[in-house]
Structure formats: C-alpha cells, structure tokens
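Before surveying the methods themselves, it helps to consider a single example record, giving the amino acid sequence and backbone structure tokens:
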Amino acid sequence: MSHRIHPVALALALPLAIACGKSEPATPVEQPVASVRPASTTITTPSGGGVTAVAVAEPVPASYEESEVALREGRYAVAARGFEAYTGRKPDNVWGWYMLGFSSWKAGDTEGALVAFDSALARDPRHLKSLHNSGRALLDAGRPREALDRFQAAVDADSSSAEGYRLLGRGYQEIGDAEAAVSAYRQALVLDEHDSWALNNLGVVYLHQGMPQEAIGPLARAVEVRPASPVFRNNLGSALERAGHPAAAKAAYATALEADSSYAKAKVNLERVSALVPEGTAPEIDVAHAAEEFRFQVTVWRDGQ
C-alpha cells in the first residue's frame, strides 16, 4: 500500500497544517528555516545635510563560543561565518562542521549546509545530528530519497532514537510510502509515547489515506501531549470532521484559534463547520477517551516487541 502523499489529494480538500515534526529542534516539518537576521547592520551617516544608510558587516565571531551565542540569538549568517572560520582553524572537529551546517541551513543556505554536513559525516559517518539535519536539509532541497537514506543510516546507527524513527517516517511519507511511514511512526512512539510530532504525523498519514477515524486517536493524543499547538488542534478538527463528528470538529477548530488567533486555516475550517452545527450542540465523541485509547494501543505495541 503506497501512493503519493500530498495535501491537494485529500478527499474533502480540508486545509491541514501538515508539519511533520519543519521542531522540534528542527521544523513545524521539523526545523523550519526561521527568519534570517542579516550578517550586517545599517547605520546612518550625515551626507550633504541629510543622512545616508550604510550597511556595516558584523565582525566574524572570534571563537566557537561566540558563534554559538550568535546562533542562539538568531543571527544565523553571523554564526555561519564564525563556524566557517572555526573549521578553518580546527578542520578535524566534527562539531564545528555540524554547527556550520546547522547555521547555514537556518540562514537559508541549504546547499552550503549540505556541504558542511557532508564534511562532518566524512569525519564521523555515524554522527546522528548531522545525519538527522542533513536529511531535513535534503527534504528542503527537494531530494527526499537522499533524505531517506540519511534517516535510515541514522536509525542503523542508533535504533533507540525516537527522533530517528520519526524522521524515517517522514522520509517515507515524502516519497509516498504510507505503509512504511506508519511503521516508522509506530516505532517512534514505542520508544517515546510523548513524541508529539510522531503522533501528529501518524494522524496525518491516516488522513491522507482516507482513514479519518484511525487518525483521531493519535491526533487527540498529540493535543493532549502538546495542548498549546494550534497545528495539532486543527489537524484533529480535520480528522473529526471527516469522520462525521462536526460538533467535535468545531470545538477543535475553536481551540486552535484560541491557541493562535491568526491561524487562517483553523479560521476557515471553523467558519465552515459553524454554518452546519447549531450553537450549543454537544460533541459527538469523547476526544479525551480517544486519546487514552490510543495511548493504551501504544503500550500494546510496546509489550508486543
């Protein structure tokens, strides 16, 4: 059972927030590239009675530690320049190359990031963070099969990592192998039943497979684990609506908007179901019970290994 997974193929064309874990320490689909702060600042100088804007490059961080500070502060391009200089001084340090790759990726330089990650992996082929994040960068570059190879290598290097199996599931999801994606997400949850992105992603696979009833449990559990996520609440609403529970869907969409009042997808969804569900209609399903049933299902999977 496998076919291309893509939001436009969904039966009811309901907007989903399909973020597959860009966090995580990585993207709502696992480490999204954040807004980039430039490696320069603008100052104004007097010029003929007026002022002129002049771009002044920030100095290259002088040490690994200063580069880390720039990274934490979101000055990704500055951090990348600092780690590039560091790798010139310490070319055999795998962490320097990894940090250069990570900073470059966050700064939007995907190809430069891949070169740096590859340099890290040339020094340590089992470096998990480089395998994980180079795979994410390959997904950003539209190279999912290469990304899948990285994620598989990470699982081969450490079969105890829930993150590794979650990313493996995402890789399979991106190439359209839903059955393998479900298997990987299930293993991620066996290893860490609180992995909210694995829960969300599993629910999304079921939705794309036209199995909304099966999607309710993992999505309800994702909301239970991470209640502040509007993405998870909106996806739960989509599962509930498609499974024939419009009042429960309305409640889920409403709480998604409570979590993020600017969330356009949830707003559109709420307006649609609100037109169909009279005020005061009780939800048709106990979502908390669905979450608990799915949590128990994960324990069955774990006990069966």
